[in-house]
Amino acid sequence: MAKFKLDDTDHKILDMLIDNTRIPFTDIAKKLKISAGTVHVRVRKMEEANLIVGSSLTIDYKKLGYSFIAYVGIFLNKTSQTHFVLERISEIPFVTVAHVTTGKFNLFCKIRAKDTSQAKSIIYQIDDIDGVTRTETMISLEESINDKKRLMHSIFKEI
C-alpha cells in the first residue's frame, strides 16, 4: 500500500487533533488561517485513507480511584492456546491492553486496579485461565512518557 501524502497543513491539523480530538474544525481553520471547509475536506481524506481511524477519549482513571497500573507477562503452555487465552483475558475488564509478543512472554498485558489487593485478584484470574502456566508482573511506579506527538513529528520528518 502506498504512503499517504501529507503536507504541512495536514501535519498542523493532525497536531491539533491529537491535542484535542473534539476541537471544532472552525477553531482549527482560524488558527491555520484556512477555511473550515478545507479542514473538513483534509480530515475526510485522511479518514478515507484510514490514516485517521476513529477518535479517542482520555479518562483520568486516578480521579476514579484506579491509579494502580501493572504489566503482566503471560507464559502459555502452548502457543496454539493464544486465541483461547486472549478471549478469556478480554472478559476481565481491568485488563486494558493485551499484546501477543515474541521473546520471554507469549502475551503481555496492562492492568489497571484500585490497589495492590485488587491487582492481585486480577492476576489470579489471569493465572486461572486454562493454558496459562505462569505470569510475571511489573508494577508501574509512574507513567513518565505518554506522548503521541513526538512519534508523529519524527514520522513527518521522514516523509
Q: In a few lines, what is going on in this structure?
A:
With 159 residues, the chain is of the alpha+beta class. The chain has two domains: 8-57, Arc Repressor Mutant, subunit A; 61-140, 2-Layer Sandwich (Alpha-Beta Plaits). It is built from six helices and four strands.
Distance between the termini: 15 Å
CATH class of the largest domain: Alpha Beta
Mean pLDDT: 92
The poorly predicted ranges are none
Give me the CATH architecture of the largest domain, please. Answer: 2-Layer Sandwich
Apparent shape: elongated
> Under CATH, the topology of the largest domain is which?
Alpha-Beta Plaits
Question: What's the alpha carbon Rg, rounded to whole Å?
Answer: 20 Å
Task: Provide the β-strand percentage band.
Answer: 15-25%
CATH superfamily of the largest domain: Lrp/AsnC effector binding domain/regulation of amino acid metabolism (RAM) domain
How does the helix and strand content classify structurally?
alpha+beta
Instruction: List the total number of helices.
Output: 6
